[in-house]
Structures are given as C-alpha cells and as structure tokens.
C-alpha cells in the first residue's frame, strides 16, 4: 500500500518504506499535482511553482524530465507509474483522496462536523483528534514554493479551525486542563481571534483558575484594542461578566 503526505515535509510511502525524492524540482512538481489530485495542472502552472522567478523559456521539456524521474522513483518501489498522468496541456495525479493526508483530514473533519451536529460529542472529538494527528507540520515544510502560498495559508487556517472545534468539544467533555496548552499557544499566535480567546478564558475558569481567566480577558481586551482598534464583542464581555460574578459559563456557548 502506498500514500502521500504534504503537511510537514513531502513524503511518499510505499509499504513500510519512504520513497526518496531528493530533487527539489521533482518534489515541487509532485506537490502541485497532489494538492490538486485528479485535476489537470497546466505546464505553466507547474512551471510557476518550480521556478519562482525566471524559469526556462520552454519549460515543457524540463517538466517532462521531472515527471519521468518521479515515475521511475515510483516504479522502483512497486508503485504504478500511472499515478502521474499525462494529460492534454499538462499533468495530473491519479490518486484517491484517502491516499493523501490532506484528503484524509478533509474527510475526518467533515465526519466530525456531522457527528457534532448530531450531538455525538465524544465521537466528533475523536475524529478531530485523528485529523490533527495527521498534521506533521506546515504545508510542504522545508520546501519554499511561493506559488503555493495561498494553499499554505488555507491549511494553516484549517488547522486552527480544527483545534478550535476540538477544544470546544473537549471542554464540553470536562477536559478543560487538557486543552490549555494548545489554546495558550494558538492565542499567542492569533491574538485577534476572539473565539480562541473565549475558549481559553473558559478553559481557565473550568480548570479552577478564575484569576487567570480574568487576566486572560484583560489581555484579550488589550490586544483587540491595540491590534484592531475594537472592543471585545458582546459575547466576550458577557463571558467576562459571568466570571466576575462567578457564574459558570457554558462550555458549548463558545462555539
């Protein structure tokens, strides 16, 4: 069985073996195809990723050489060369979504959302945990591809969303202490993201750290005013009021 990972460094697995693809050009070509599995990518699109500044006037031959090299690496590990398909005007990856970590994450998070809507909190949290376990790092870590910056930002945002949803469910399951570390780190990275602030404040309160929860609200208020010129939302102010009055805030109200 084989598979691909793009969250973290690019990896190709065949059975228990990692298929080495040391060439930067080959890695970029394969990454572009995997991120758009089943969709033809034009030579120009691939070339823009391979050569961030000035590339060859006629990149077709260079891209074809890269594709040939990728196919040889696959064949050497018993993988079908047809995984990289030649199409009119370009190339595509003939790879099922569940063979790529991004595809598995999308499937897991979609299932988690359905379970959450059905009120199956533990099951939903389990799927979100499985999805997060597939993230080994940022998209294509160690491979600088400016043309794929939008995809990198999208997947970074997706991870924050998943952590948010999992933290909300873990709070509902009474696991406030377990989410404090991740929430603290994410709030430091995204101080203007109110939902993260609300989750952290709620987790602190439910962990018996009322003073820290009140301080976290002060920090959130300061950051929102300094960074965006706005005051905390009514929901965040209500949460602050509840904690001031020692009224236990609902863990699901932070969703």
UniProtKB/TrEMBL annotation:
Residues 1-95 form the OmpR/PhoB-type domain. Belongs to the AfsR/DnrI/RedD regulatory family. This is AfsR/SARP family transcriptional regulator. It comes from the Bacteria. Residues 1-95 bind DNA. InterPro entries: AfsR-DnrI-RedD_regulator, BTAD, OmpR/PhoB-type_DNA-bd, Sig_transdc_resp-reg_C-effctor, TPR-like_helical_dom_sf, WH-like_DNA-bd_sf. Keywords: DNA-binding, Transcription, Transcription regulation. It comes from Saccharothrix xinjiangensis. PANTHER family: TRANSCRIPTIONAL REGULATOR REDD, TRANSCRIPTIONAL REGULATOR REDD-RELATED. CDD domains: BTAD.
